[in-house]
Structure prediction request, 79 residues.
Amino acid sequence: MRSYTVFEGRFMTFEKPFDRITVETDKMGGEPCIRGMRITVRNVLSYLASYTSRAELFDAFPDLEEEDLRQALAFACNR
Prediction:
């Protein structure tokens, strides 16, 4: 399944549209989270802005994976 979104007249393709983003009403107030963990998409975006390198971010949050970051960024673009 492919999902398409338009960004400044260009199409971006997501092969697996947000299969790592979950929303559960009983976790984190229903905010979108990464893989059911108590790490919100909003927090991931904040971490990306705050940490000087992804290696440092992954050291601080070993449960996060590169695909989690990619999907969090793509999810934010589609909101």
